[in-house]
Protein 1
Amino acid sequence: MNVLEIRNLHKSYKNKIILNNLDLSCKTEDVIGIFGRNGSGKSTLLKIIFGTVKAESAQIKINSKILSQKEIISSKSIGYLPQVTFLPKELKVRDIIPFFYPNGDDQNKIFYAPKVSSFEKIKVGHLSIGQLRYLELLLIGNLDHSFLLLDEPFSMIEPLYKEVIKNLLIELKNTKGLIITDHYFDDVLEITTNNFIIKDAEKIEINSKKDLVKFQYLSSN
Ligand SMILES: Nc1ncnc2c1ncn2[C@@H]1O[C@H](COP(=O)(O)OP(=O)(O)OP(=O)(O)O)[C@@H](O)[C@H]1O
């Protein structure tokens, strides 16, 4: 089992505190949901953990070893699905897979994953939003990371692919710890083991949809 521990993560932009001395832990088989209104700091939190945004302070440990932000990236322990798409539009799906997986057996895992045969001959630019997000998640999620950070895996996705993505995340959870942020709260709550909301730069544990109302993320109607 692998354990990721974040302590005293503090981040502000100009004079505004975005994340105030926040602590967070994630271990293999955890699926942690992070909620919060637009601009509350969810993406910033994931980028700091991944190592691409600098915090004023943050102690990040993997399996009890403290890692600097540079070391996090070079350790290849953490995978990250960014909010914006990153695959080249002009390439066909089947030509992209070998870039991520040079080894034939690893490639087969992607080629034989559910639904991939239905779009492997298509150019990335012609995929539906659901197909594209699923492909991105397959490519990033099957790499050898201990933890996976997912920024909006469900946003704008058609119901069919939401289910395919959920099944993939449930499978990935067997070997990784996952941290997910998305406004599609019903989908997130279906698969998470622990949930938090970021409100006024603080992290608050929540246990149900009712708590999302209590902390003014959802209206009571
Ligand atoms: N590079 C930056 N420079 C200045 N302010 C920034 C920068 N990046 C983010 N912010 C601000 O930090 C706050 C948190 O942004 P972040 O993108 O983390 O929010 P979020 O919770 O992911 O929002 P959303 O739900 O809209 O994706 C916002 O007020 C945003 O404007």
Protein 2
Amino acid sequence: MFTSAAQDAPGAVPGRGTVARARGLTKAYGTGETAVVALDSVDVDIARGRFTAVMGPSGSGKSTLMHCLAGLDTVSAGQVWLGDTEITGLKDGELTRLRRDRIGFVFQSFNLIPTLTAAENITLPMDIAGRKPEPGWVDQVIDSLGLRDRLGHRPAQLSGGQQQRVACARALASRPELIFADEPTGNLDSRSGLEVLGFLRSAVDDLGQSVVMVTHDPGAAAHSDLVLFLGDGRIVDRMERPTADTVLERMKAFDVVRGRLGDDAVARED
Ligand SMILES: Nc1ncnc2c1ncn2[C@@H]1O[C@H](COP(=O)(O)OP(=O)(O)OP(=O)(O)O)[C@@H](O)[C@H]1O
């Protein structure tokens, strides 16, 4: 049975279960008059086996939310869980292991090691952990990304789209509980971007993965199942089955509100 708190949290999907969640998540940078509240008591459930996009105006707290959910940043208040593990309060070493073993990351800038081949990059986190990949799994990931004939290449010998596909394979190699993608198409041309988005989609549909993607691009968000909209450090809206047009319309509403606030500020100065 669901508690009302779980059902009310943005992102919750009854019957799915949550792969990550936060309650009262607050993150402030600095202190005193210069303090910036990047996240303001956020409650969120990330549904297992779904593709969730996070959108919002610049400075609304998207990256901060991702970093706090992924244990890349400490929180000022509140609690964060990955599965049943409360990550707020874990020691640095425990957090490092949790990120390495249970979370996959895809960044805008690929973050591949230039001296290693594609194959070595893909298995690097598992090699560091001293873990053997599940038989057949890494092969399945490599084939579904079309990387079989590129495995011996170094990053500089690959196109941007191919490098990002290697980064996706690395994120998936350990069969993580949750994959975080931070603007994964930001450095790609539209065709390569579509390939990466299609892969993240099939990682959810065909491989049973859970994905959270931060993006500025309504077209990218349209590949997700659910968009969470952040405004001023709070989740202010959610949209199931988004399309590029409906997401764009919702984002325009932020500009209208900002415009009104700007007018009010001018009026006050008068
Ligand atoms: N290290 C930091 N020190 C001080 N303030 C920070 C720091 N990181 C983020 N902030 C502030 O926190 C707020 C949220 O930032 P965040 O990067 O999470 O927003 P965002 O929605 O990801 O923005 P963008 O779309 O521009 O990347 C902003 O006001 C930002 O200036």
Protein 3
Amino acid sequence: MPIKVENLSKIFGKKTKEATRLLDEGYSKEDILEKTGCTVGVNRATFEVEEGEVFVIMGLSGSGKSTLVRLLNRLIEPTEGSVEIDGQNLATMNKEDLREIRRTKMSMVFQRFALFPFRSVRENAEFGLEIQGMEKEERSQKAEEALELVGLGGYVEQLPSQLSGGMQQRVGLARALANDPEVLLMDEAFSALDPLIRKDMQDELLDLQEKMQKTIVFITHDLDEALRIGDRIALMKDGSIVQIGSPEEILTNPANDYVEKFVEDVDRSKVLTAEHIMKRPETVDYDKHGPRVALERMREQGLSSIFVTDRSRNLKGYVTADEARQARESGIEKLSEIMKTEVPTVDKDTQIQDIFNIIHDSPVPVAVTEDGKLRGIIVRGAVIAALADGNEVDADDA
Ligand SMILES: Nc1ncnc2c1ncn2[C@@H]1O[C@H](COP(=O)(O)OP(=O)(O)OP(=O)(O)O)[C@@H](O)[C@H]1O
């Protein structure tokens, strides 16, 4: 279910008209508070979240994330603007329809889940279905399915106090999933967890999402978390969205100084992947070409080695210029006789740090393959440049 947000604003306080006017005139959030007593919660947010997307809203404390996410399910009334869920405008919906949509189409997961201490894990996961008035048997079954999904299948009879913090948070997630909502709103859902468990939960959410393909809006103040799980990220400052983009766009192409400062300390080696620094490979054909063609191509391109593929671009190996030259001199005509088949290979999602470790003692560039087919090559200079400053480098210049 896609979400479409247009010009959405929330100004807290009484003199919202005056505050809006000052906002339009370019006054800052602080000035507006001083002059009108109003707080700018969200300022004219416009974006769309696609079905199946993980859309992260990120920003420092007070930047407006929670207000924005509560505007999405109208727990907060907007001062201006519109939210459309699956083409339906939330603002014009009556209370009953709104309640219905919150119950069945959108679920919210919070940082600290209010689990009922004297109810079992299953009963806790059933809660949303219970208030919908679903029969006991049906809701138990749905709750158990959701608990199974989050890896708590064996704990349904336990009490929350018998679970770790991470497991309790999974119960919260299961409660949201039991509703089988199309939209999941997750407000700092993993922020209370310690770092290792948090990372597990992030991985798990991504795994789940691969199967579920929900529309997820995920709020976090943690940049690493945003970069890890977001398909796209909206970065907020003082109520305004300052940039929306994929993690790579935010890192490599910050919209302004604020974003640049924000992402300054990110460990890019963990975010940028093979896909970002690979270039188009020069190859020779295993079945068609011999050492002569290989040597010519290497000379033309100034290469000291070249990859060999078959007609379907399956990677077979590589030959070096020295060996191709020797082969020519000794009359060898087949690449198979001189080709080396041990090729350093990564896939497109391999992190740069890992590529660095491989390329470090490799005599040839690293091959990037997908299902055995050669998609690109990575040269050492590109890895070093990316590690050095994170800017997307043209591998040719590196
Ligand atoms: N009910 C309210 N009344 C008045 N001001 C509010 C209200 N709720 C939020 N605000 C103000 O709106 C701004 C945005 O707050 P919000 O809670 O959305 O930020 P946030 O990014 O979620 O912060 P945090 O990460 O600390 O939760 C803040 O300046 C906050 O003080």
